[in-house]
Design goal:
Two copies of one chain form a homodimer.
Chain A: H1 4-29, H2 35-38, H3 40-44, H4 66-69, H5 74-80, H6 83-90, H7 92-124, H8 141-144, H9 157-192, H10 197-200, E1 201-205, H11 215-226, E2 231-238, H12 241-266, E3 273-275, E4 285-287, H13 288-312, E5 317-325, H14 328-336, E6 347-350, H15 366-386, H16 388-397, H17 400-406, H18 411-414, H19 417-437, H20 439-450, H21 455-486, H22 488-493, H23 499-506, H24 511-531, H25 533-545, H26 550-556, H27 564-584, H28 589-609, H29 622-646, H30 654-680, H31 684-697, H32 703-707, H33 725-732, H34 740-743
Antiparallel strand pairs in A: 1-5, 1-6, 2-5, 3-4
Helix pairs in contact in A: 1-19, 1-24, 5-28, 6-7, 7-9, 7-27, 7-28, 9-27, 9-29, 9-30, 12-13, 14-31, 15-20, 15-21, 16-21, 19-24, 20-21, 21-27, 23-29, 24-28, 27-29, 29-30
Chain lengths: ~750, ~750
């Protein structure tokens, strides 16, 4: 078991690496050449056209040394933008995502202060671990501050019981407040939004085949009959998988063409050549520019032919469509009601934003969908529960004795104090981390197989899978696997079952492990995020070989986006740790508060300057976030119950804890009824208000023309993923005038623009 | 433990009592004087006006002895009415309720045959229980036919595993077929229904208070704005609790008045007197007829004043209303959509039938509702889990040793063979039964507190509570409490937890207990039901003292109705027993098949001749029935898993059973998605079809006048619970012509009318 010294070493390493990353970031971001890596958002917004020059000395390197002195002042700058402007600038999704960190601070700062003041003295004076009988057990100084130091059956456990209630109550109170705020923010956001195609449009799936009519006419007739006063138009969905492949291939060939053209320009004497075989590695040697030009020509023709075929072939139309209505009211009605007596056909739901649609999944029939979900549930089960085995194996290696046994020749090296501390304080965290990196892609693929039809729902679904995985493997896996190795004997002799007790008892022992984990994952990990190493390298490669025009440079930027599916469950893990250890080992809490604070600043900086969201769901993910924090809270409560009953607390304390999870579940139901529908449905009253307003302000609006091309598969737009028309319109014509518009065309003069902090 | 002989004694007793009840019923029902007790349905339908006379000998006693000979021929008569006519005659609720028994037969007849043929030989030849080492354990011959007789670790368990899968698959298949049939029946029933007020009406609750407008105007304005093309009218709900009390009091006084008037008529010489105090037991003596006449006069005045007050006082209007629309489409839209951005106000849902409304619960605000639900959930928990203690106590007494210990002087009596068999075969079942009789009223009260707004939902909710109770107390309680007494020692020494194993192991041992239970509750209990003892006695008391006119006699009839809240969970218990014992002790299954057959005939007779349903929900309860059978199936599967792993079956068998519950849960989800919305929502397509049809056939319909008084609290209709107008209309003008109409006015001539079997 790690001692206080190990922790200190680990902390030193992590703080050092964090600071190193931050310094590197501070230096790199000031170089004009990196401007498009660290401030892509401002370029995409059109507010910045080219890097700011620091004096006239260089276009690439910033030689103005005064700017390096204040290397941390991006932090206050990140905090300065007020929230309404942030929503306007980066969208509601990002602004609300940031609030998760804020929520962590709101929950844990008071809990940290309270538990440190109340429980640490109670535990410290318990003095159990100094007794003679425990001399043969290993324990660290941290354990003396934890609940393990309180003698069995002591009246002191009442303090822990009381604190458990206080923490639960405070968490629920903050959650309720936050849910209310976010629901209001969402409703205000939706109300202030300009006209969007998705406000008028409903996605209808599982259109039944009709022997007499093609799909398109069948849909039109159905809605003309059943929504006669409201139906406006519809767009069928084409099966464009092959076309999308052609477009992607052409795009890649175009990149190669540009690459060889650039090469030729720089060295006009030599004609670049390539081989026609696989990846240009073998085959006959040809002139590269000619080759790619003819290939692109061929592909263009093929693409046009395929496009023709898809549009004219009725087989290529899938039984799904985007149906648009004359009013928002009509769309809201159609999205919320059942159309046919058979509930598996004519399924209607709100259309996602055009950008948000996941086109491949629109045509899955009902029975296939349920079977896919079953298979994926089983797959998730196996993935979650049998992934544990390698983790347990690696962690069992990551202690001194394990390594000495497997690799005995390393013994002299390992026995050195510094190396020992490093292995014990650092390796277990790293081992866990590597496993986790491989996972999100697998989970996202599984969600795609499950057949969700929008990117936002795919992300939400992957997040919940990832959350389950972290719960079982990182949390429970660490608790049990670690304990199993250290205390295997006690484990077998104790009565089986009694899960909460066993887990509960191993919690205090794993505090030091989780502290190192927080430092590796939560501190250094976040600092790496802000450095953006991969996009930095990629940008410079692209910039060197592929960029000719400013537009190319625009495309070479990879702003990235908030990866909700991966990062939200990771935040949830910190919530869980905080809630579990709040009563058990309060000294862990300051580490968590540090994580939330640091992440909040870093991600606020990132969403202001870097990330460009792919879609805007209006914070539709909040109910999930809320639910998962509550799941963490309930787990914490059950473990406290198990721990208190297992450590032989005063018999009369444990029953008092049973009410906690029941009340928490009730609280969840209450919140669900109170707020959730704000994230799922669109109230008719709001729709009617917006319709009426629009009729009054724009009586001659041609809605049909506006909606005509809103939901067209991106490959039909010449293969380029344009920002849709509606978005441009909002940019140029926002309902709420903001300061942001005054930046347009000017490069300076904003209190929050990224150059203000230099 | 009961031996085969005990079972035989119990069977003899129960068959004897069942036959006795049936003979008594056969005799009583043929007496003209009881005609209104055993055939009230036909009187209420207006098809029968007075008892059929058997010759001219007597109006009260049937002296035509030929009619007694065929005393069982009500049974074929009950089976003869075809289902469409049954739906027409008794409503869809009743017809579908009967199908639950039919479903039991469909599931269990094939399973019984299969398991008896396959598993009984496998078990019988196992011969474990004849080994020397088991000589000290008590076992009966029945156990030799059960899984207990198979040796530990035997390959024979593969047969049980396979049969478990076959049974689960067959059950799911039959359930799926049945769900499909019932969904179709419901949709056809709704489509063929004539115009009903509830088709056009939506119940809106939690109307927010408005400072400037009274509730009624506020509602009108809201719906005029948000449903401008569809809103027609609305009816506010009055708080009429006090008025209802006055009406009830007046009604009771009127009964007394009639009683004394009758008394006076029969004995004109003596004026009846009463005392003015509590229940007429003390106080000054007055002339009864005068006293009640003046009291009724006073009450009428009071009632009129109160009625005036309620209608004119704006305080008496609760924030809920029945809002009617011009079309079914408009109502369907409003019922399925969210109105306001705050999801706890302007809550809309389909209005229940006027008869189905539970008026007291219409005005409960959201927060209060959630708190009520929490409190009732906690109360249900305590009721369910602490009710077990007395049952366990009584059952521990109900064995020979227990009684001898507590009451040693009874020893000589008890030791006699007949008495011993009686105590062991009969008492445990009776003890359980008595506890259960007290319960349904408590559960219904709890459901009322929870705030459901229709009688049908109250019944559904009570049924689910009762189901939980039966599961925990009757099923688990019997298994554990019984085992605890017999095998307490083994119980304590085994590892704790491992719940399914422990329960699983006690299953085969309790087979004989459940067989006696089935005979007492399922055979004799059902025979008592058909005898209708309580209504028989009550009718004759009322007929003697209160009846003056034919209308009075009509009111004295108490046809009763299917008590879904109590009887459905009891059926579920038989499903559970059948599914659990299918693999374990197949000899129990014929008893269950007998129960389903007998109940099917009895209840079909009852719904044809007796019951008069209070409301018609269109089989809305079926999803609950389906779900609970699946819960039973999953419990059975888990117990099989526990049993097989505990009896040391071949290690490789148990893992194969894990897939069963997972597949069953998936099957539940599949069915839910496929069928449930047919029971919850009303599809727009259907609404549109009916609207269009109606516009074409009745272009001049004055819908507003039709709906004007549909939803008025019954006390405003002069204190009498009239059958609403809409129902009368359907009676006189059915969409589907049926044979039933030919009965109108004629007393004979139907193949299914109750007299046909005489």
């Amino acid at each position: 078991m790690a001692t206080l010294q190990d922790i200190a070493v680990s902390a030193a390493i992590n703080i050092l690496s964090t600071v190193t990353f931050l310094v590197a970031f501070a230096i790199l971001r000031l170089q004009p050449i990196n401007d498009r890596v660290y401030f892509p958002k401002w370029y995409l917004k059109g507010i910045r056209g080219s890097p700011i020059s620091y004096g006239s000395l260089s276009r690439f390197v910033n030689l103005d040394f005064r700017t390096y002195i204040r290397f941390l002042n991006w932090m206050p700058a990140a905090l300065r933008m007020p929230e309404p402007e942030l929503i306007d600038h980066a969208g509601l999704d990002s602004a609300v995502y940031i609030r998760i960190y804020l929520l962590g601070l709101k929950i844990f700062i008071p809990i940290t202060i309270l538990t440190l003041v109340v429980l640490v003295p109670v535990n410290w004076t318990g003095k159990t671990l100094e007794l003679e009988q425990f001399k043969n057990l290993t324990f660290s100084n941290i354990d003396k501050l934890s609940i393990s130091n309180v003698p069995t059956g002591s009246k002191r456990f009442w303090a822990h019981l009381l604190m458990s209630y206080v923490c639960s109550f405070w968490t629920c109170y903050v959650l309720y407040k936050e849910y209310k705020i976010i629901a209001t923010m969402r409703l205000e956001f939706l109300a202030s939004q300009n006209r969007h195609p998705d406000q008028f449009t409903v996605l209808v799936r599982n259109v039944p085949p009709d022997p007499d009519e093609p799909v398109s006419e069948h849909i039109e007739h159905f809605f003309c009959v059943n929504h006669p006063d409201h139906y406006l138009t519809h767009q069928v969905v084409y099966n464009a998988v092959k076309l999308a492949k052609l477009v992607a291939k052409k795009k890649s060939f175009q990149n190669w063409l540009v690459y060889y053209q650039n090469k030729h320009e720089r060295n006009p004497s030599k004609k670049p050549t390539t081989k026609t075989g696989f990846w240009g590695l073998w085959g006959s040697k040809v002139d590269a520019i000619d080759y790619y030009t003819t290939e692109i020509g061929k592909l263009s023709e093929e693409e046009d032919a395929e496009r023709e075929r898809v549009i004219s072939d009725s087989e290529a139309i899938v039984p799904a469509a985007f149906v648009s209505f004359k009013t928002r009211w009509g769309a809201a009605v159609c999205a919320q009601t059942q159309q046919s007596s058979n509930p598996t056909i004519w399924l209607t739901e709100w259309a996602p934003e055009p950008r948000d649609v996941f086109w491949d999944n629109l045509a899955i029939p009902y029975v296939e969908l349920t079977i896919r979900r079953l298979l994926m549930a089983v797959a998730l089960f196996f993935l979650t529960f049998f992934y544990m085995i390698p983790i347990a194996f690696v962690q069992s290696l990551a202690n001194i004795e394990g390594i000495e046994k497997v690799l005995p020749f390393l013994k002299p090296l390992i026995e050195k104090d510094v190396v020992k501390s490093f292995i014990q304080g650092f390796l277990p965290g790293i081992a866990l981390k590597i496993f986790l990196v491989l996972l999100p892609t697998v989970l996202m693929t599984m969600s795609k197989i499950e057949g969700f039809i929008s990117l936002s729902s795919l992300e939400k679904r992957s997040a919940s899978k990832y959350h389950l995985f972290i719960l079982v493997n990182v949390f429970l896996g660490s608790l049990i696997a670690g304990t199993a190795l250290q205390q295997l004997k006690q484990f077998i002799e104790a009565p089986t079952g009694d899960f909460p007790k066993t887990i509960g008892m191993s919690i205090p022992m794993k505090a030091t492990f989780f502290i190192t984990y927080i430092m590796v994952d939560g501190w250094s990990g976040i600092a790496v995020e802000i450095l953006r190493l991969v996009p930095l390298v990629m940008f410079h490669i692209k910039n060197t070989f592929l960029v000719k025009t400013d537009q190319d440079r625009e495309q070479a930027m990879d702003p990235g986006c908030l990866d909700f599916a991966t990062s939200e469950p990771r935040i949830q893990f910190y919530f869980l740790l905080g809630l579990v250890y709040s009563v058990v080992t309060p000294v862990l809490l300051p580490f968590i508060v540090a994580f939330f604070t640091f992440s909040f600043v870093v991600f606020r900086h990132q969403i202001i300057n870097v990330y460009d969201q792919k879609y805007e769901s209006g914070a539709a993910f909040w109910p999930d976030v809320h639910l998962r924090i509550l799941i963490g809270l309930i787990i914490a409560q059950i473990l406290h119950m198990g721990l208190l009953s297992a450590t032989g607390a005063d018999k009369s304390t444990t029953p008092w804890l049973i009410a906690q999870p029941i009340l928490t579940i009730w609280f969840h139901k209450f919140c669900k009824g109170r707020f959730e529908s704000a994230f799922v449905k669109f109230p008719l009253q709001e729709a009617m208000v917006k319709d009426t307003l629009e009729r009054a302000t724009e009586p001659n609006l041609n809605l049909e023309a506006y909606l005509q091309d809103a939901y067209i598969h991106p490959v039909f737009k010449g293969g380029e993923l344009d920002i849709p028309v509606a978005m441009d319109e909002e940019e140029n014509n926002p309902l709420v005038p903001t300061k942001r518009n005054s930046h347009l065309g000017s490069k300076h003069g904003s209190e929050v623009s990224p150059e203000a902090d230099i």
